[in-house]
Structures are given as structure tokens and as C-alpha cells.
């Protein structure tokens, strides 16, 4: 085990709702990400990284605990259940002598829970749970749940609020530029506070910093310079599969927070411009932080990990937002970089093994030379990143309770099998030959063996689940989905 003095600093950078394909190094035809490209070019790029339960709360539970969604108990989006986990990533690092700090989004309950961090500078964005004025008291005012908003009001006026631009916090199809100085944008705030942590940290200890951005999660509000980069671009057509619903009799696409429907092209193009602008803005601010690491002389002793908690459908197949099993929603960017070459990584390589949010905790503990606690479902990816041959997981089980769109899925990185638990609808995609999931091959004779294999894996994964989805022999559609499993509810009562 490494001594405290010999341990590297750890920097975890997460963004919220960024798709896997929105980096220029991935060949994206529009978005420009020079700093992320450099981290990927000189690091390891995991091209089959997924969020098994692709929405904010369950994805962050996997990051914090290293557990699968079945083990941590959050199989849907439920902000009301308290977080009571004995073992967390920041807690383990703090016990090992790390100075631990989070800046930005946590999205836990109670909102100000530290979960092992020594300090949190919190900005979860506009969260409906905390802004519900029908349940606010003097002791439970939403101002108490956020550090960015008081900071903003000190600098821009007491009347400032998160709704001033008229954009809903989940409006994936409406965008406009940020109107205040760029330095006051929440993305800049995360970096400003993170740089200040470098000043005030305990320099006798290694540090763990989770720099957790809310953007490019809506509102789609890039600063003017970043809006201008994309506002006049001709946006490529979105991929529309042969299975997609091309009818919208209820005009759901006109709803700015819709999850599906036919959105007017001009509106969608502006939303894409806003989304891409937020990503380039994030990229430049990450570059700003890299420069700060150099100035403080700690860059070469810092392990850097970058990922997103989930993606955004962005109009693929006329679908929007997250919680769905498709690549736009569940497939995320994932980069591991070691500027000082402390870990012996095979730098500049791309890996195809299927990794997931649960692998973050064991990887960072491994990088720190610490023992990974018993019972952790995730695995350290350092062996993969060093080019060592290893028997890695053969598939990933993902899911999300989501009303009539509640879904279960299996992928091995080559194929993906999807089962909609309320209707029984099945889909199969050949990800190697059809990466944008244009053709549902579930009925194709050539894919019947693969469909049967993946369906059997899902039957096994769901066998005995409390919802009643499987008896070990077959799948049962129509069972009521649960957002949180009973063992989680029992633990928090």
C-alpha cells in the first residue's frame, strides 16, 4: 500500500447529460472540444462506457458506491429516498488521508449530505424537489440547498434567479444565450471554486476533487460567444430508426420539456446549437482548470478521469432527454488520463470493453493504492488501461423505471437487447454495424440466436426480482415498475 505522501491526487470531472459522441476526437461533425480531445489523445478512451440506469440520481449512486443499480437500490429517478450508504468513494479516500472536496452537483438526499466529503460547494442546478414552494419552510428554503445562487446574487443583484431566462430545467428543445457576464455562468463558477480549492487545500495531504458540472443538462444557455459558434451551423439530420414513431397526433413535440415528438426543425436546430455551445464552453473551462493545475505544480501528480452521468437523445428517433436504453441516452464519454505517467497506462489507446459508472470508485481507489472494499460490484479499469489481458465483464445489464417506457436491456458492446417491461416489446441492435440503432433486428432470422442469448441473460438477471419480471424461465410484461427497490427503502426507514 502506498504511503499518504506517495499517493497521487485524484480529479474526477463529471458533466451532466453529455452524449458519448459529442467530442471532436470522436469525429463529431459540429462540436469542437480541444481540451477533451487532448485528454483523450494522451490518455485512454473507453469507447463502450455506459450508464446502466441513465438518469442523474441512480447514476450518481453508482459513482458514490461502486454498486450496480440492483445493489444500491435505485432503479429509477427518485429524489425523495435518503442516501444512507456505509461505504462511499469520498469516505474511503478521506479515511485514507485524502483531503476531499466536491464542487457542483451532488443530487443526494438530504441535499447537504457530505457522504464522506470534507466540504461541498453545492450547485445541483434547478431541482424541482428543492424548489417546490408548497413544502418550503424557513429551515427548508431552497436557498439553503445551493451555494451558487447566493454567490450569483452577491455579484449580479439580489433579484437574480435560476428561471430568469425563461428556460425550464428539463427543456431539451428550447435554447437561448446566457445574458449575464460569462464569468457568472454556473460552469465558470464550478471552475472558479475548484481553483480556489487548490489555494486553500491542505498541502500535506493528497486531494480528491470531484468537479461536477450541471451543464450541458438544460437549461440550454451557453454564453453568447459559444452560442455564436453554432447558431448559424447547418445541423446534420438526426438518425431516425425504422422502428421510430413518426406520428405525433397530440403535437407532443411542441412541448418544450417533451420526451418525444416531432419538434419543429428550426427549434431543434437552435437547441442543438445551445447544447453544443455548452459543451465547448465546458471544454474551455476544463482547459482553464488544467492550466491552474500547472500553475500550482500538481498536474503531473494528478490522475484525471472524465465522464458524464448519462446522455441525451437530442431528437434521435424523435426522442429526447434520458432514462432510455438507446445509445444517445445510456452511452457516455469516458477518459482516463495520467499526465505524470504514474500508473503505467497504455496512453493514446482506445478500448472496447464495456465499463460503467460503478467502475469509477474501484478505479480511483486502485489508483490511490487502496484496498477496494468487499461487496463492491464495480471493477478497477486500470488493468485494462495498462494493456494487461484480463477477463473483463462479458455484458452489462441496464434498466430504468420510466412509466410506460420502463425498460430493461443487455449489451456486450457488440449487440444490445431491449425489453420494455410494460408492453413486452423487444428490440435488438447490431452496434458494430448499426451504431445509431437505425434497424431493429429482433425479427431478422440472422439475429435469432443472438436475440435468444441476450434475452436469456436478461431472464437470469431479473429472476426473483420483487417486481415479478422473471421466474428464471421467461419474462413477464405488465408488472408494476418500482423506482427504488425494497432493500433501499427498508434501509432508509
Automatic annotation (TrEMBL):
<dbReference type="GO" id="GO:0008484">
    <property type="term" value="F:sulfuric ester hydrolase activity"/>
</dbReference>
<dbReference type="InterPro" id="IPR017850">
    <property type="entry name" value="Alkaline_phosphatase_core_sf"/>
</dbReference>
<protein>
    <submittedName>
        <fullName>Arylsulfatase A</fullName>
    </submittedName>
</protein>
<comment type="similarity">
    <text>Belongs to the sulfatase family.</text>
</comment>
<dbReference type="Pfam" id="PF00884">
    <property type="entry name" value="Sulfatase"/>
</dbReference>
<dbReference type="GO" id="GO:0046872">
    <property type="term" value="F:metal ion binding"/>
</dbReference>
<feature type="domain" description="Sulfatase N-terminal">
    <location>
        <begin position="8"/>
        <end position="369"/>
    </location>
</feature>
<dbReference type="GO" id="GO:0005737">
    <property type="term" value="C:cytoplasm"/>
</dbReference>
<keyword id="KW-0378">Hydrolase</keyword>
<dbReference type="InterPro" id="IPR000917">
    <property type="entry name" value="Sulfatase_N"/>
</dbReference>
<keyword id="KW-0479">Metal-binding</keyword>
<dbReference type="InterPro" id="IPR024607">
    <property type="entry name" value="Sulfatase_CS"/>
</dbReference>
Amino acid at each position: 500500500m502506498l504511503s499518504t505522501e506517495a499517493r497521487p491526487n485524484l480529479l474526477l470531472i463529471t458533466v451532466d447529460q453529455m452524449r458519448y459522441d459529442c467530442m471532436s476526437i470522436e469525429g463529431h461533425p459540429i462540436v469542437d472540444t480541444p481540451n477533451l480531445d487532448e485528454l483523450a489523445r494522451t490518455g485512454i478512451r473507453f469507447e463502450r462506457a455506459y450508464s446502466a440506469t441513465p438518469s442523474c440520481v441512480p447514476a450518481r449512486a453508482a459513482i458514490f458506491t461502486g454498486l450496480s443499480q440492483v445493489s444500491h437500490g435505485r432503479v429509477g429517478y427518485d429524489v425523495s429516498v435518503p442516501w444512507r450508504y456505509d461505504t462511499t468513494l469520498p469516505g474511503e479516500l478521506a479515511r485514507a488521508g485524502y483531503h476531499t472536496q466536491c464542487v457542483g452537483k451532488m443530487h443526494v438526499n438530504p441535499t447537504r449530505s457530505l457522504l464522506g466529503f470534507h466540504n461541498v460547494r453545492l450547485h445541483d442546478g434547478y431541482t424541482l424537489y428543492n424548489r417546490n414552494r408548497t413544502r418550503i419552510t424557513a429551515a427548508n428554503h431552497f436557498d439553503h440547498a445551493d451555494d451558487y445562487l447566493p454567490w450569483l446574487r452577491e455579484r449580479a443583484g439580489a433579484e437574480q434567479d435560476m428561471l430568469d431566462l425563461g428556460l425550464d430545467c428539463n427543456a431539451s428543445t428550447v435554447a437561448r444565450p446566457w445574458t449575464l457576464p460569462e464569468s457568472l455562468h454556473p460552469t465558470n463558477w464550478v471552475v472558479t471554486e475548484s481553483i480556489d480549492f487548490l489555494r486553500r487545500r491542505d498541502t500535506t495531504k493528497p486531494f480528491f476533487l470531484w468537479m461536477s458540472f450541471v451543464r450541458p443538462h438544460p437549461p440550454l444557455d451557453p454564453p453568447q460567444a459559444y452560442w455564436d459558434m453554432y447558431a448559424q451551423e447547418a445541423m446534420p439530420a438526426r438518425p431516425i430508426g425504422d422502428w421510430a414513431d413518426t406520428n405525433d397526433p397530440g403535437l407532443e413535440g411542441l412541448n418544450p420539456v417533451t420526451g418525444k415528438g416531432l419538434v419543429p426543425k428550426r427549434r431543434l436546430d437552435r437547441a442543438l446549437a445551445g447544447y453544443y455551445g455548452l459543451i465547448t464552453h465546458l471544454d474551455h473551462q476544463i482547459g482553464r482548470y488544467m492550466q491552474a493545475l500547472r500553475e500550482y505544480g500538481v498536474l503531473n501528480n494528478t490522475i484525471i478521469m472524465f465522464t458524464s452521468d448519462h446522455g441525451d437523445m437530442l431528437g434521435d428517433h424523435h426522442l429526447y432527454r434520458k432514462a432510455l436504453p438507446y445509445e444517445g441516452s445510456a452511452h457516455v464519454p469516458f477518459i482516463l488520463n495520467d499526465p505524470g505517467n504514474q500508473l503505467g497506462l497504455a496512453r493514446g489507446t482506445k478500448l472496447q470493453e464495456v465499463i460503467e459508472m460503478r467502475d469509477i470508485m474501484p478505479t480511483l481507489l486502485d489508483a490511490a493504492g487502496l484496498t477496494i472494499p468487499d461487496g463492491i460490484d464495480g471493477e478497477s479499469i486500470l488493468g485494462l488501461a495498462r494493456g494487461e489481458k484480463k477477463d473483463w465483464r462479458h455484458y452489462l445489464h441496464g434498466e430504468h423505471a420510466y412509466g410506460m417506457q420502463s425498460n430493461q436491456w443487455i449489451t456486450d458492446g457488440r449487440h444490445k437487447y431491449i425489453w420494455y417491461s410494460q408492453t413486452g416489446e423487444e428490440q435488438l441492435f447490431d452496434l458494430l454495424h448499426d451504431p445509431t440503432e437505425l434497424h431493429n433486428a429482433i425479427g431478422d432470422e440472422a439475429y435469432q440466436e443472438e436475440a435468444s442469448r441476450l434475452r436469456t441473460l436478461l431472464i437470469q438477471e431479473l429472476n426473483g426480482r420483487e417486481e415479478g419480471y422473471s421466474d428464471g424461465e421467461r419474462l413477464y410484461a405488465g408488472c408494476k415498475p418500482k423506482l427504488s427497490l425494497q432493500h433501499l427503502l427498508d434501509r432508509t426507514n
